[in-house]
Design a protein that fits this description.
The protein is of the alpha+beta class. The chain contains 15 helices and seven strands. The strands form two sheets. A five-stranded mixed β-sheet has the order 2-1-3-4-5, sandwiched between helices. Strands 6-7 form a two-stranded antiparallel ribbon. Helix 4 runs antiparallel to helix 5, helix 5 packs antiparallel against helix 6 and helix 10 crosses helix 12.
Length: 329
Amino acid sequence: MLAEFIAAVDPDNSAALAEKLLTKHGSLARLLARPPEVLARSLGENSRVAAMFVAARALSLEAMRSDFARRAINPVDPQLLQYLRASMGALADETLRVLFLDASRHLIADEQLHHGTVRQLAFYPRTIFYRAFELGAAAIILVHNHPSGNSAPSECDVAATERLAEIGSLLDVELLEHIVVTASDHRMILAGGSSAGSRLSPKIILRDEGGDWSSAPDAGRALANAQRTSRRRLLRRQLVGARELFGEPAWDMLIDLFIHEAEGKPVSTSSLCIGSGLPMSSALRLLQRLCDMGLVTREPDQADGRRNFIRLAPDLGNRLVAYFAGGED
């Protein structure tokens, strides 16, 4: 079929070009998804075959898009999903696309906001919501592709969706759906396509205040003693001059975390690892062990998706209050 299509403009070389293109790009869907500059590298500058592919793709996508552009958008609309799979499901790199909708769910804009690599995509919530405000959007639909061909959302996909839904709820811009697409499949995270198996809605986080050890009656005395312990340990190392012989990095990390939490200061993964005095790779492994043992937990920074905060597990926090309230180490 591809050879017959190419024969319309280059009948003498159609079979050879079809074989070359399928070998290089893997499938017809991936070939049709390639941007003009990629086709130019495969077929040469000013290639009539490349120009035909670009025009055919644009015509096909416009035909699909025109079917839903003037009516209210529904994330489960089969025509919308077909359009999204065809337009970005076979892209070689992960790409984030945002459909901006008005209060009646009509399409205001369809924009690509972020471009990643084959395996990952970094994006900034403020970019998405700033653009939503610019356009006067009341709702958004997020779409990104998985170049691997597996449409199953990753844990990062699910966590990012939950975070964006929460931010959107606060800003009165509803996240209707986050759709993961491939060339032949799709998965909806909010509709139950996530590994969690349930809808992740915008929510208010409730916290059991019984686990807030920093407000315990002895917390002030415990903090003062923990600070004294930390200072004396630092002084001891400075006096002796052999940190590697006298350090207890896991314990030091917990003390540092205890002091900062008691002072109401968040501690990021990087700052805790740097403060341990270990090489970053070693500190990260140690921190992972503390997480695996249930001694500390990671919480995403709602304002910056690239960063996590580390917190003491409530039970350990209460035990450290009792420990330090009894005197210095």
